[in-house]
Amino acid sequence: MRTGAGRRAEGRGRGPSAAVATPVALSLGLLVVAGCLLGWYVPGALAAEAAYRSASFCAGRPEPEGTRECLDAVPGTVVAKEPGGGRGPRLPGLRWAADGGSAASWVRLEEEGALFDALAPGDRVRVVRWRGEERAVVAGPLRQETSATPVDGHRLPYAVGLGLVPLGGVFGWVAYGWARRPEGTARASWLVSVPMGCGLVLGVVGFFGPMVTDGLLDALLLSVGAAVPVLAAGVWLLRWRQARPAAPPGILPRLPGRERSFPGVVVGAVPYRAAGFGTLVAGPEGLAVAAGAEPGAARLPVPRSVAVVRVRPRAGEAGDWVVECRDGEREVLVVAAKEDLPWILGALQ
Prior knowledge:
- The protein is 39% helix and 24% strand.
- The chain is of the alpha+beta class.
- It has 3 domains: 8-42 and 154-242, no CATH class; 57-145, CATH 2.40.50; 260-347.
- The longest helix has 39 residues, at 16-54.
């Protein structure tokens, strides 16, 4: 007779590929987005900023609706001004009318700067147009960029791209870890949670780096510099965790003098794991997984090459425990009740 824990563990072990599909999709999606931002959008934004900075003012009469590569300085008059804030992320704005009788329109500024504070309705301004959009407002010696300026347009996509790279790598690692740990509770193990924490920290550093530095290289160096201590701490935590005793205090191996049968399952990509086998048999000959506790039930012996790594409670399942083992390069999980762990550990010695 199998326990509910045994049936649940066996059911979760049937389809590791289904569990791996989600982190794989997340990893690929994040890395693709990061690649598009860093490899396509950021270079385009940098090129646009360089072209804008190097552009000269157009010769002759400015075009209020111009789309030229040169800078059109269109003269006009401030009609009204609107501070930023209020409800929603509203930017400060100036309502102005170009000379020549065109209808008044709003131009949004990046922030409330010295130019915005100095202007009042009726003041004269020049609005700089480039490639069909209003990019800056000039009043005497004061100049302020609008929300459509290409200056620093690379910062946010660069920040998002740098932040997504470690997150994409983390989900790739999770997919690898879940592929080797088909049993559901292994997803909460330290071998997954520690790299996940490292990836989140590096993602935050990667995102805020371009916001607080002046250049692309500075932001990249900040991310790399942060990666060294964060990854070193993660490696130390993993080694410390793995160096802990295999079994918790009070759970000692017991060598069975005769065969003992109890509910449990073996999970992993190994030939001695089979659907419908929900009984463990521990005896002098070692450990086996059986189709039932009755005599003559089909059995699959667990080879002596299986080595115990550690014992842990099964997350989210009171009373269930997991014996993590290695069979060469493959991970093997033995799920059973806590009171049966000594017999499992003894049979696997």
